[in-house]
Design brief:
With 320 residues, this protein is mainly alpha-helical. Among the domains are: 2-87; 195-289, Orthogonal Bundle (Cytochrome Bc1 Complex, Chain D, domain 2), CATH 1.10.760. Helices cover 60% and strands 5% of the residues. It is built from eleven helices and four strands. The chain has helices spanning 2-21, 35-75, 78-86, 90-99, 129-151, 158-181, 195-208, 210-213, 235-245, 261-273, 298-319, and strands spanning 111-117, 120-123, 229-230, 288-289. The strands form two sheets. It has a two-stranded antiparallel sheet with strand order 1-2. Helix 2 packs antiparallel against helix 3 and helix 7 crosses helix 10 (261-273). The longest helix has 41 residues, at 35-75.
């Protein structure tokens, strides 16, 4: 028993240490845990720590009681010490009370009249106290829960909890999008169509690009960005590459050291959203007309046909 409680003590110390160092997780180069995982982990750790703490506390109380009984036996006369040794401990009394077991001598008083079958007598044993206390505890918990959440309105409702979780999920999604978007390059970039990203792209354009291309993209020192003609190729990949690396010979500076890949993707998407806007005072077209080339689907068709042929052959073999 001592080994068991000693083992539990080490587990308790480990959990306490883990719960105190968890907030440090995510500092430095370590990844940050999502809020809901961190909160759930802390709740589980606290529940386990509380349970183990209660067990250890009970163990220490049992040891203290045993020591007190030994000291009492040493100080009392021999007869009284013998009586004290025969008396059950406090824990034995508590277990006996919770179990509700009656001594065998009292069995005759518990027999139900007319409930005897083949020599087997039915006893009138009521609900054990531990189960009755548990039942009363659930009622008390229900009353406190109803008062806390419904009557007093202190705790959040299910709708409020749902809204909070959705808000957290939106923040986490935004963080994931930022991490993923900052890994984008001219080979993997795609057009962003979300209004908030286009608005951020517009702000970046006004702050950094409007000086040469005009606030409405109609051009100035730089070419018009609202028509179908481009000096260095249109489309999201070419524009992203041009913004990133620039074109010094034509006065276009590189922005890869000043803007993140995600910011370049936003401003690129905003520039493409200006297509066909025809702002007043825009410069005439310059460069060559850009037509987006549709993706090559011949390989996909060939692969699909091959898979269909293999599937048909397999079906014929099975039918044979």
């Amino acid at each position: 028993m001592k080994k068991v409680f000693g083992f539990l003590k080490w587990i308790l110390l480990g959990l306490i240490g883990g719960s105190t160092t968890l907030p440090l997780y995510g500092q430095g180069n370590a990844p940050e845990l999502p809020f809901y995982l961190k909160q759930d982990f802390l709740n589980q750790v606290l529940a386990i720590v509380a349970f183990l703490y209660v067990l250890l506390l009970m163990r220490h109380l049992m040891v203290l009681e045993k020591l007190a009984r030994e000291v009492g036996r040493m100080m009392l006369p021999q007869e009284e010490a013998a009586k004290l040794a025969e008396e059950p401990s406090i824990w034995q009394k508590i277990l006996k009370h919770l179990s509700g077991l009656k001594p065998l001598e009292a069995e005759k008083d518990l027999v139900l009249e007319g409930h005897e079958y083949d020599g087997i007598k039915e006893l009138s044993n009521g609900m054990p106290p531990w189960l009755r206390y548990l039942f009363l505890g659930t009622i008390l918990f229900g009353v406190l829960y109803f008062t806390y959440f419904t009557m007093l309105g202190i705790g959040p409702t299910q709708e409020e909890e749902y809204a909070q979780e959705m808000a957290r999920a939106a923040l986490q999604k935004e963080e994931r999008m930022k991490l993923a978007a900052n890994k984008v390059d001219e080979n993997t970039v795609v057009v962003l169509t979300e209004k908030n990203y286009l608005e951020e792209g517009r702000k970046i354009f006004i702050e950094n690009c409007a000086t040469c291309h005009g606030e409405n993209g109609g051009g100035g020192a730089g070419p018009n960005l609202t028509d179908e003609y481009w000096l260095h190729g249109g489309g999201v990949k070419n524009i992203f590459k041009l913004v990133k690396y620039g074109f010094i010979q034509k006065g276009m500076p590189p922005w890869e050291d000043k803007l993140t890949p995600f910011q370049i993707q936003k401003v690129t998407s905003y520039v493409l959203s200006l297509q066909g806007s025809n702002p007043p005072g825009g410069l005439p077209p310059a460069g060559e007309k850009w037509t987006e080339t549709p993706p090559d689907t011949s390989t996909l068709k060939t692969t699909t046909a091959s898979l269909s042929s293999l599937d048909a052959a397999a079906q014929r073999q099975i039918s044979q």
